[in-house]
Every structure is written in C-alpha cells, then in structure tokens.
Design goal:
Elements lengths: L1 H12 L3 H16 L21 H15 L3 H7 L9 H11 L1
Helix pairs in contact: 2-3, 2-5
C-alpha cells in the first residue's frame, strides 16, 4: 500500500516531457498569435523557422517563469548559453533541467 501511495505521489509531482512540450507549444502559439494556430509544433521545430526573433524569444523565456516555477533572474542565471537554444526540443530540455 505504501509503495502505491509513493508511486501516486511521484506521478502527481512529476511533469512529463509531453506535458512540458504541450505547455511550450501553447506559449509559442500565444506569442506567435493566429499565424501559429495551424502550424504543427514538434520537438524538432526550429524557432527561427517559426519567425522567432530576439523579442519573441525573450517573451518565451519570460513566459517560462510559470512553467518552471522560478523567477526570470534564476532561470537566466541557470542557463549557460541562450544562443544554443534553436528548437522546441532545446526549450523542453532546458525546462526539464530547470525543474
């Protein structure tokens, strides 16, 4: 019984890669507006191909506060190189590392 309760607690507290992808895709579509509604977003989607410039990228990073549960200062201090983030996979990996 205890193992079952521990397993349920872990499942409740763990955020899966798919859940993070869904959250990131939602943020990208919110930032991009109506133009992004019909674009399928996958882990391999390149942010530059979506038309993400530095302003949209920073809006995405700022929006990660809610996903990660940390202040933007903490997020930026923990990221080694923002320029290495090119795809949605990179964003998801970064979020998972920050959690």
């Amino acid at each position: 019984m205890l193992k079952k309760l521990i397993g349920l607690a872990k499942k409740k507290n763990e955020t899966t890669r798919e859940e993070i992808l869904g959250q990131i895709a939602g943020l990208i579509k919110k930032i991009g507006g109506e133009d992004y509604n019909d674009i399928p977003l996958t882990l391999d989607t390149n942010l530059k191909d979506l038309g993400f410039d530095s302003i949209k990228f920073m809006n995405l990073v700022l929006s990660l506060e809610d996903v990660v549960g940390k202040d933007i200062e903490d997020i930026i201090s923990e990221i080694d190189d923002l320029s290495s983030i090119n795809t949605i996979r990179d964003v998801v990996d970064m979020v998972m590392d920050l959690m």
